[in-house]
Amino acid sequence: MNKFESRYAQSPKEVKQMDTATLRENFLIENIFEANEVNLTLSHFDRYIVGGAMPVDGKLDLPNPSDLKANYFLERRELGIICVGGKAIVTADGQKFELDYKEALYIGRGTKAVSFESVDKNQPAKLYINSAPAHKAYPAKKVSKAEAEIVEMGSPETANHRIINKLLVNSVLQTCQLQMGMTELKSGSVWNTMPAHTHDRRMEAYFYFEVPKGQSICHFMGEPQETRHVWMQNNEAVISPNWSIHAGAGTSNYTFIWGMAGENLDYGDMDHCAITELR
């Protein structure tokens, strides 16, 4: 069984009026991983798709939701996958890729058949999925953490000492517009993406995992002078509009995956917000 949901885009004016429940309904994505299911959420911000596949009792096929009006899912799209569970096998038009924990896979436009399976059903794979529209076909490629572009940022003094693993980015491989990476916070650090920023040229989605049992994440969004927050749990994602900041603080350290798409592939294309100017 598969689940697909489509969500409309909202303006800053609309978001200002939202209560907690409405904010969560529009931006928070829960239940990403359910046994033997592929769950997908389409955001109308840049037509970005966020989801997860959790194969347990056999193989799962990437579905082709009718809302896409396509002959197959990747007819006009590209796909990024990061493994956040047990070892997985992803098959793309007959080409098999084995993904270990925190390894990534890019699959290009025009790939007709994609399937997911676990190497060991007792340690089921959890495959976090992002997808964006694509104008050109690029070859499938696996990227390990060793092949990523790695940047160390922040400091213990500001509680944001973190390692940024740029996995599916244009400095590592060719994509149309999809970019994905993973940020690991060091013990004692809790803040991500602080100082905060916006980038009106692209949207973003955050997926939080390795959140210890009993701990939570407070994700901040909204315009820099009109912020809102969403409390999140392990293995949940949040949609970040292009006009919104996207930052968070946890009650413990954690790891998160960022994915984005828009009109350019410039990782540094950001409009920075001074910490003291946030409201």
TrEMBL record:
Give the organism, scientific name: Pedobacter changchengzhani
> What does the UniProt keyword field contain?
Isomerase, Metal-binding, Zinc
Task: Tell me the GO BP annotations in alphabetical order.
Answer: D-galacturonate catabolic process; D-glucuronate catabolic process; pectin catabolic process
One Pfam family assigned to this protein is KduI
Q: What class of enzyme is it?
A: isomerase
Would you identify the family this protein belongs to, as annotated? Belongs to the KduI family.
What SUPFAM superfamilies does this protein map onto?
RmlC-like cupins
Q: How is the cofactor bound?
A: Binds 1 zinc ion per subunit.
As recorded in Swiss-Prot or TrEMBL, the protein's gene is named kduI
The EC number(s) attached to this protein equal 5.3.1.17
Q: Its function?
A: Catalyzes the isomerization of 5-dehydro-4-deoxy-D-glucuronate to 3-deoxy-D-glycero-2,5-hexodiulosonate.
Per its UniProt record, the required cofactor names are:
Zn(2+)
Any one GO MF term held by the record is: 4-deoxy-L-threo-5-hexosulose-uronate ketol-isomerase activity
**Which reactions are catalysed by this chain?**
5-dehydro-4-deoxy-D-glucuronate = 3-deoxy-D-glycero-2,5-hexodiulosonate
Which pathway does UniProt place it in? Glycan metabolism; pectin degradation; 2-dehydro-3-deoxy-D-gluconate from pectin: step 4/5
Its name, as the record gives it, is 4-deoxy-L-threo-5-hexosulose-uronate ketol-isomerase
- InterPro entries, A to Z: KduI, KduI/IolB_isomerase, KduI_N, RmlC-like_jellyroll, RmlC_Cupin_sf
Gene3D superfamilies recorded for this chain? Jelly Rolls, pectin degrading enzyme 5-keto 4- deoxyuronate isomerase, domain 1
Highest taxon in the source lineage: Bacteria
Q: Which residues participate in Zn(2+) binding?
A: H197, H199, E204, H246
